[in-house]
Design goal:
single chain; 201 residues; mainly alpha; 83% helix; globular
């Protein structure tokens, strides 16, 4: 493995993290509604589990999903239902005052972790990227470096996002448009959950 492999992996990873999806939507919404600390915490949960999915891909978990399609279908269905549950709560509480909806950091971390735990497509994406970018034979140390690198990239991204989205100007704007932003985020998450629920792959 060479440094160019890690650079290519990081570029693909950044594109995946920054693309619209449940993880990004929840990270932004959590920061806007509960502040920087909760935003960083949800990012830690997202990043930790995402890096563990990469570890699982390195260990060959995607082969397990191929051998046992029902396992993949089960995790995918639970994940879809969880996204719909999160979307429902966002929609119902869209008009709730921000001060009354305090989100402890541990709760934000748990929510971030759950979003990625219940996303089996993450391991398939990781496996595809790993196969394309990295050499077939890697040492244990090199695999550990890839997983650590993944964790660092995710945590840095979500920490920077939390700092950017928690500025006073952005927070004031969110407070004025909270009901519309929360319901738009709920619609996106709900649509993603339904899409995941009905998709065959």
């Amino acid at each position: 493995m060479e440094i160019t492999h890690l650079i290519a992996f990081n570029l693909a990873l950044f594109a995946a993290i920054a693309s619209p999806g449940p993880a990004l939507v929840v990270a932004i919404r959590t920061t806007l509604s509960a502040g920087r600390r909760a935003g960083i915490a949800v990012g830690l949960g997202l990043g930790l589990v995402a890096s563990l999915w990469t570890l699982a891909a390195l260990l060959g978990l995607e082969a397990v999903f191929s051998l046992f399609p029902w396992a993949y279908a089960l995790v995918k269905t639970i994940g879809a239902l969880y996204l719909i549950y999160v979307a429902y709560n966002m929609w119902v509480h869209a008009r709730a005052r921000i001060g009354a909806a305090h989100t402890p950091a541990r709760h934000a971390f748990r929510q971030g972790a759950m979003i990625n735990i219940l996303n089996p497509k993450a391991v398939l994406f990781a496996a595809a990227v790993l196969i394309v970018i990295f050499p077939a034979e890697m040492t244990v140390a090199q695999s550990a470096l890839v997983v650590l690198n993944h964790l660092v990239v995710e945590v840095l991204f979500y920490t920077c996002l939390a700092f950017a989205m928690s500025s006073a100007a952005v927070s004031r704007g969110y407070q004025r448009a909270k009901v519309y932003i929360d319901r738009a985020a709920a619609a996106v998450l709900g649509a993603l959950g339904l899409r995941l629920l009905v998709s065959r792959t």
